[in-house]
Design brief:
Distance between the termini: 20 Å
Strand order of the largest sheet: 1-7-8-4-3-5
Strand content: 15-25%
Oligomer: single chain
Radius of gyration: 17 Å
Low-confidence stretches: 169-173
Helix content: 25-40%
Mean pLDDT: 91
Largest sheet: 6 strands, antiparallel
Length: 173
């Protein structure tokens, strides 16, 4: 599905923090990088704020991150909320490049707080994707299973969408 991240996969992370990006994810990054050049590679923004997410890195396309930044900058100057979002999203953002082999480097400042080493799970979230340890992925899936197990046997997860209007606006976290 063009334009959004879907699916999940596991990739090796070497000692220097190099990791291969799933090929379908690379296509989305390229599509949403207005200055994409095959000779340079696609850009991605990696958010490593532990205040936002406790278990994973959140990765944005350039267009999605620019849209998020515009929303933050439009907030009232000096407001507590604006300062908080600037610290969470802008200060803890790491711009990265996907090289010609489909890899990017995750520096230690991004990997270490989340324990990412050896293997990483890439988990799509539509307009973003997560990078997390296999253990954090399993914990997230177990929490989802627990939530679903508490619902009626005939519960249809798609019914959760009924509370939200259909829109093409492109949600930004």
């Amino acid at each position: 599905m063009a334009g959004m991240f879907i699916g999940e996969s596991v990739h090796k992370v070497d000692n220097k923090g190099r990791v291969s990006i799933p090929s379908d994810f690379r296509v989305v990054l390229q599509e949403h990088d207005p200055t994409y050049d095959p000779a340079r590679g696609a850009r991605v923004v990696v958010n490593y704020a532990k205040h936002k997410q406790k278990s994973h890195l959140e990765c944005y396309t350039i267009e999605a991150f620019e849209a998020l930044t515009k929303r933050i900058l439009a907030m009232p100057a000096g407001s507590r909320e604006k300062r908080a979002l600037q610290a969470i999203y802008l200060s803890k953002a790491h711009p990265a490049m996907v090289d010609e082999t489909g890899r990017m480097v995750l520096p230690a400042k991004c990997r270490d707080p989340f324990g990412i080493a050896g293997e990483a799970v890439f988990m799509a979230s539509g307009d973003t994707f997560k990078i997390l340890t296999p253990e954090a992925y399993e914990a997230e899936m177990a929490a989802l299973e627990s939530y679903l197990d508490d619902l009626d046997d005939d519960f249809d997860p798609a019914s959760l969408l009924n509370a939200y209007p259909d829109t093409d606006s492109g949600a930004v976290h």
